[in-house]
Design a protein that fits this description.
The complex is a heterodimer of chains A (262) and B (269).
Chain A lengths: L1 H15 L2 H26 L9 H17 L4 H11 L2 H6 L4 H29 L10 H26 L2 H4 L5 H13 L10 H7 L9 H7 L9 H28 L6
Helix pairs in contact in A: 1-6, 2-3, 2-6, 3-6, 4-7, 7-11, 7-12
Chain B lengths: L1 H18 L3 H27 L9 H35 L2 H4 L6 H9 L6 H17 L6 H26 L10 H12 L10 H10 L7 H8 L15 H21 L7
The chains are: A mainly alpha (262), B mainly alpha (269).
């Protein structure tokens, strides 16, 4: 555990150098949040749907953007680049698991940016959240559990798909597939409750909805307490299943690995 | 002028060969971009149509906005994306200094040698499809005048996109680190134009029209085509000025680039 903590802190520190990048990230986050505020104000003012309130949507956007930013990584491209320059052979010599190393690195890299980008949004949304119903302790605990599983699941899927880099060699395009599918079936852009029926049905067969959508549903108390175990269990099952899969793939990959020079 | 085309076509062929070397990757990339941008189209459509209207525009009409934005970006970025995003790296490595010694203007040499990006065919095909579907679903009947208007508007819009890329690359002359301006202009600011600008406060409408005129890229032409209201009190001629706005900002961006070049000191590598 201590080894992973070291990786986490190292990659956090290397990120702290980019103060300007964090500042611009903040500007971008605020602009993006303003767009969402005006957009949902305009949409909700039509009065067509009354199952969603404005504070609900703000919280939805807020939690979503924080979780997405925290897990933002492109394992496929990292592997691709280390295979091209040969650094992968060094990475494999490290006395820690490659997956744990990647996870620690991802969280360390992203925690600074996602916190600095989210705090101004939180302050901004205080002006709008006065009428919001805040969840009780039980919901908050279940949300925390579900969000942690969601973060793990987001990383797991990115990692698992990223391993295909060992076979594909060139794979910068993987993130387009992943982001697209996550946006469609995970409801990271538009909450799934606005979706047509067949897409909602499809989303139950894929891991994406358990990443941010289900945790947020628990936070907004749209999922009643006695039903919260269903998405949590589903996330857990996906996590276990995919971990077994990535283990097998990893073994095959390290056998297959061919480094050209480096 | 004849030399210009000769130069362009020989650089173009080299870029094409270089990028088509990994053919499987190329096609996998195209499909990936379809899915990724398609997800945004789908999201916008689902969002707007579950509320019927957004600021007086229905789902298909709002799709026109992102459609025109992606289409003009595809054209502008084909020529200027590699150039703009690669400039910092070329300055850092010292490759850029070679452009200063060539018998053509450094800007042209940089644009040509950075190469035409063939990948944007994916953005173009998808957005063309979306624009056609969106127009036919609002039962728009195309006439020669309308098609001509749309083509010139997209051309102007492509110049705006190109100008944003060129302008953001100027920072590379002063700092070769991460370039936040590219994200600011081409991701953050442009996201406003995915929706009718009339839903935003007047200050934002003003910025998008007169300061960073991204609204000319899609909102004004689409408003003219679909007969939608433009911000209150704005001249009625605005929807027809996209080509002019494009030409002006494109020229300004090149002036800015030359100013940056004048103040550039090599990294010496």
């Amino acid at each position: 555990m201590k080894k992973y903590l070291t990786v986490f802190i190292k990659s956090l520190k290397s990120e702290l150098i980019y103060r300007w990048a964090a500042l611009w990230g903040m500007v971008g986050a605020v602009l993006g949040f303003l767009i969402q505020i005006f957009l949902w104000q305009a949409l909700l003012s039509t009065g067509v749907r009354n199952d969603t309130s404005f504070p609900d949507m703000l919280l939805y956007v807020l939690i979503n953007s924080f979780m997405l930013q925290l897990t933002r990584t492109d394992v496929a491209s990292i592997i691709e680049n280390t295979m091209i320059d040969g650094a992968i052979s060094m990475e494999l010599l490290r006395p820690i698991s490659y997956k744990g190393y990647m996870l620690a690195q991802t969280l360390g890299k992203n925690i600074y940016g996602s916190l600095t980008a989210t705090v101004p949004l939180l302050l901004l949304s205080l002006f709008f959240l006065s009428g919001a119903a805040f969840p009780n302790v039980a919901h908050i605990l279940l949300f925390t559990l579900s969000a942690l599983l969601g973060i793990a699941l987001m990383f797991e899927v990115t990692y698992l798909v990223g391993l295909t880099a060992f076979w594909l060699q060139r794979c910068w395009f993987i993130r387009f597939y992943l982001n697209g599918l996550r946006s469609i079936f995970g409801g990271t852009m538009v909450p799934l409750w606005f979706y047509p029926e067949f897409l909602i049905t499809l989303s139950y067969w894929l891991p994406f909805r358990y990443m941010t959508f289900e945790p947020i549903n628990i936070f907004l108390m749209k999922t009643p307490l006695e039903q919260a175990w269903i998405p949590i269990l589903a996330a857990l099952m996906w996590l276990v299943g995919l971990s077994i899969a990535d283990n097998l793939i990893w073994r095959a990959a390290t056998k297959k690995l061919a480094v050209n020079g480096g | 002028m004849k030399d210009f085309w000769k130069l362009f076509s020989s650089f173009f062929t080299v870029a094409l060969r270089r990028q088509m070397a990994y053919r499987g990757t190329y096609f996998a990339g195209i499909i990936g971009q379809w899915i990724s941008n398609g997800a945004t189209f789908l999201g916008i459509y689902i969002m707007v149509s579950s509320f019927d209207l957004l600021g007086g525009w229905n789902g298909s009409e709002v799709l026109m906005l992102f459609g025109l934005s992606v289409m003009s970006y595809a054209i502008g970025a084909s020529f200027f994306f590699n150039f703009a995003t690669g400039l910092a790296g070329r300055i850092r490595s010292g490759e850029f200094d070679a452009s200063l010694t060539k018998p053509v203007h450094p800007f042209l040499h940089e644009v040509f040698s950075a190469g035409y990006n063939v990948g944007y065919i994916s953005h173009f095909t998808l957005s063309l499809f979306i624009v056609i579907v969106a127009l036919s679903s609002v039962s728009y009947t195309p006439d020669a005048q309308g098609v001509l208007f749309l083509i010139t508007a997209v051309f102007g819009a492509a110049l705006i996109q190109a100008a944003a890329l060129i302008a953001s690359s100027v920072l590379s002359f002063f700092s070769v680190g991460r370039n936040p301006i590219i994200d600011f202009l081409l991701v953050d600011m442009k996201e406003f134009t995915n929706y009718p600008i009339t839903i935003f406060p007047r200050g934002i409408q003003f910025v998008l029209t007169f300061i960073l005129p991204f609204a000319f890229m899609n909102f004004y032409p689409a408003a003219a085509l679909l007969g939608k209201a433009i911000p209150e009190g704005y001249p009625a001629i605005l929807p027809y000025l996209s080509p002019l706005a494009g030409a002006v900002v494109f020229a300004l961006s090149i002036l800015l680039w030359n100013w940056g070049l004048k103040n550039y000191k090599s990294t010496g590598s």
